[in-house]
Specification:
Structural class: alpha+beta
Low-confidence stretches: 1-11, 356-367, 722-747
Radius of gyration: 30 Å
Number of helices: 26
Number of strands: 11
Oligomer: single chain
Strand order of the largest sheet: 2-3-1-5-4
Largest sheet: 5 strands, antiparallel
Length: 747
């Protein structure tokens, strides 16, 4: 075989990562084992909250109430069900009083109260068959979880004539944390074997298919260790584990797909292992590094927001992206050097190739036929570019229309399955108890005041629209608090408006408002304040990075707009399915009638980063071809022909991982997994296959324009695959040279 454009012998970075391949892999094995030990208990150290703004008024009021009036903030509930009789029946009342005394005697429990002690009507169901015992478990997250684990099994169940269920905010969070851990293990058991099968189908070789899985496992275990370390200095959300698994497998597989595919192609030209690795790192390796940076930028934008729920995803996402890229660029080349031609061992496609050749007499490989099909698709799209551009854009915008009706809410017990005990308790409170138990607003009064001043303020609160009743004040020194029960649902528009009205009500002392609706108002405000900064960061840095890749002014703008357009279907489905409840039976979730406020931000940052991942691989191949030929139309076709199949395969594999995550019984995790899977597939199969070639055909040669100063800047600092120099005087459009060896990982 004649060698074409043979690259130089390995040097620089290639020599560094392949000089001692066995030693490199041994060190990696030791570090991975240490990561397993370091991150073994990470799930137990993570929190299940983090949606609140720590600097918000509601957060300040909550902490002050917990400090000054600890008994006013119950976080643990016992729902006592007397069955067919009344909770006031002597036998039921006697048993409930014994349970109250028993709970009072428990260590780590304070502020125990019950309907049978206070007679408060809000603690008794409207039909008289159920009532509540409320308490507060004290200590940090670890302490209250231990207390809950100790007392809950003894309290729940049948006690004489009554049946007891455990609920409250702590029970909800504890059950959510446990459910997520169980679901994550199940998702991994689903994703790993299915992913391996898909990789074998893509590579043919079982040996090559195992390499991406190895990279993914290293990235996941390393990130778990990093998260465990972060829990020593900051709060980290348990939900971040899902992103670690999904992106660890997904991105590692993406990067390893391009690296291994490119390495195998170099071997097929007659190159030895070291030379093949050198070419692979010089071409596909550069693109992998660049892609990892673009994904990390999108995830880093979540650091702008104050909620540790969002920050946790930034911690986990950035760590897993960088570890996946590092494993793909350091460990994978070392393994490839050692494997050499054995990377093609156990190639299951040889049998089918021989059979097909015997039947048809054709020696064309399936990959070649697949590439030709993508090339024909690109040619068809570019011939009818205006129609495809308009139809595709209109279709995506139509799919996104439901998002215009989005209603934002807070995460509550309805995140859990309908059969979860804490969900059942909260549902009974919503449906059977007067007012909105657990949904009242607490108004904290700070400063000295007389009884008359408290009474006058209470009257002003009671006169506000949408107020059912006002209770209190309970006074302790210079502190007091009132409880305001809204007429409607705990977090509906009326309750949120009431928060603003209370905060605007004159008082002779300093006031602050907390409660579910107040937390939602403050969370929405924090998201609104941070969103422009996060979007600006993503857009500006993405524009710079894509310019460094392409040297074009127009392509970065196209990349940002088309990536954003690829997310419309995801956001539309978010509202249509999870807010409005369509498919709730099929997907097994309870719709709360709203979307948790931070979730769209999270999904945008993750999906936008993954879209850029695929965009970089396609654009880098088109750019390289244009540098070589100066033929714009042929370069677009050639780029899609060379990368379309591989990008689609990578997207399908990542979607499988996300769907496995989406099988979670926790609704937010289900939304995250299924929503990202939809966004990834739409991006790979619609944006990259139809809209990108159509738009680039419409913009023509102007696509590559940049003013002279920026061209000079790109020539000096730009990044591209291969070593060819841009065509300064591109001639008439010609077809790409079929004999030339491609220098892209997706060739």
């Amino acid at each position: 075989m004649t060698e074409v454009n043979r690259p130089p012998r390995p040097g620089g970075w290639t020599r560094f990562v392949t000089a001692r391949p066995r030693l490199s892999l041994l060190v990696a094995l030791v570090l991975t084992a240490l990561a397993v030990v370091a991150g073994s208990d990470v799930a137990d150290r993570l929190g299940s909250g983090g949606w609140e703004d720590p600097a918000a008024q509601s957060t300040y009021a909550t902490k002050a109430l917990e400090r000054e009036f600890p008994d006013s903030q119950p976080n643990f509930l016992l729902l006592v069900d007397a069955g067919e009789t009344s909770v006031d029946a002597p036998a039921a009342a006697a048993e409930a009083k014994q349970l109250t005394e028993r709970l009072t005697a428990e260590k780590g429990v304070t502020g125990v109260g019950s309907y049978w002690l206070t007679g408060a009507p809000t603690l008794r169901s409207e039909d008289g068959t159920e009532a509540l015992i409320a308490a507060r478990l004290t200590g940090d997250d670890t302490a209250v979880n231990k207390t809950l684990d100790r007392i809950a099994p003894e309290l729940r169940g049948t006690h004489g004539p009554v049946e007891v269920k455990v609920g409250g905010i702590l029970a909800v969070r504890h059950e959510m944390q446990t459910t997520i851990q169980e679901d994550l293990l199940r998702a991994e058991m689903i994703a790993l074997p299915v992913t391996l099968v898909l990789l074998v189908m893509v590579f043919g070789s079982a040996v090559a298919a195992l390499l991406p899985l190895g990279v993914g496992i290293v990235a996941i275990l390393g990130t778990n260790a990093i998260l465990r370390g972060l829990t020593e200095v900051t709060d980290v959300s348990v939900f971040a584990l899902n992103l670690t698994t999904a992106m660890g497998l997904g991105l590692a597989i993406d990067y390893a797909l391009f690296i291994v595919r490119r390495f195998r192609e170099e071997l097929s030209t007659g190159a030895d292992s070291l030379t093949a690795v050198a070419t692979t790192l010089r071409t596909a390796g550069r693109t992998v590094l660049f892609s990892a940076l673009t994904v990390a930028v999108s995830l880093a934008a979540m650091m702008v927001f104050p909620q540790y729920f969002l920050k946790s995803f930034a911690y986990a996402g950035i760590a897993v992206v960088l570890l996946a890229a590092a494993a793909a660029l350091i460990l994978l080349p070392a393994a490839l050097v050692l494997l050499g031609d054995r990377v093609n061992a156990l190639d299951l496609r040889k049998l089918f190739k021989r059979r097909r050749k015997a039947e048809t007499g054709s020696g064309d490989s399936p990959a070649a036929e697949e590439g030709a099909a993508w090339g024909r698709t690109a040619a068809l799209v570019m011939r009818r570019a205006p129609y495809f551009a308009v139809a595709t854009t209109a279709g995506l915008l139509l799919l996104g229309l439901p998002f215009l009706g989005v209603r934002f809410g807070t995460a509550d017990d309805r995140q859990l399955p309908s059969t979860a005990e804490s969900h059942v308790v909260q549902q009974h409170l919503r449906e059977g108890f007067p007012g909105t138990p657990g949904g009242g607003l607490a108004v904290l009064a700070e400063g000295k005041a007389t009884k008359a001043e408290y009474a006058a303020y209470k009257e002003r609160l009671a006169d506000l629209p949408e107020v059912l009743r006002v209770e209190g004040p309970l006074v302790e020194g210079d502190w007091a608090y009132f409880t305001v029960q809204p007429e409607g649902e705990a977090v509906d528009e009326g309750a949120q408006h009431l928060v603003e009205e209370i905060r605007a009500t004159d008082a002779p002392f300093d006031t602050s408002v907390t409660g579910t609706a107040a937390v939602l108002v403050d969370t929405k405000a924090a998201i609104g304040d941070g969103l422009p900064w996060a979007l600006s960061f993503i857009v500006i840095v993405t524009l710079i990075l894509v310019f460094l890749l392409t040297g074009s002014v127009l392509i970065p703008l196209q990349a940002v707009l088309l990536n954003a357009l690829s997310l419309t279907a995801m956001f539309g489905a978010l509202v249509w399915v999870f807010q409005d409840g369509h498919l709730s039976g099929l997907l097994a979730f309870t719709s709360p009638g709203s979307i948790e406020t931070t979730l769209p931000v999270l999904m945008f940052c993750v999906a936008f980063g993954l879209s850029m991942d695929y965009g970089v691989f396609l654009l880098s191949r088109i750019k390289e071809e244009y540098d070589h030929t100066g033929d714009h139309t042929a370069s677009v076709r050639f780029g899609l022909q060379r990368t379309g199949g591989l990008i689609t395969a990578a997207a399908v594999i990542l979607a499988v991982v996300m769907v496995a995550i989406g099988t979670s019984r926790v609704t937010n995790t289900k939304m995250l997994g299924l929503g990202i899977a939809l966004a990834v597939l739409m991006d790979a199969m619609v944006i990259r296959s139809l809209l990108v070639p159509a738009v680039m055909r419409l913009t023509g040669r102007a696509t590559w324009w940049a003013p002279a100063p920026l061209r000079r800047f790109h020539e000096r600092f730009g990044l591209s695959e291969g070593e060819t120099k841009p065509a300064t005087e591109p001639g008439p459009e010609t077809k790409p040279e079929p004999e030339r060896v491609s220098s892209h990982s997706g060739s």
